[in-house]
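Bumping with the actual sequence this time:
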Amino acid sequence: MSDDLPTDCVRSTLVVDRPEFESVPAASLDHTIWFHRPFRADRWHLHDFTCHHVSNSRGLAVGHVFSESGEHVASISQEVLIRAPR
């Protein structure tokens, strides 16, 4: 999930202006997770992602993960490559 959600965030930013990007494959170029405290993976978490930049087929998404109780448990950043369809 930590890889798919940032990719979807970048893709959804592109789809607003270019609907053809909705079904285009994407690749993770760089992916980092910082764990701030122990948490249970079998519980619900809120993943809050923002696309910080998109240009030249590359996008950067940054996000935060919160536990059910609202604790900030992790931060994620990912650079994504999405090529324009031919």
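The tokens above came from a reply further down the thread. The mean pLDDT is 86.
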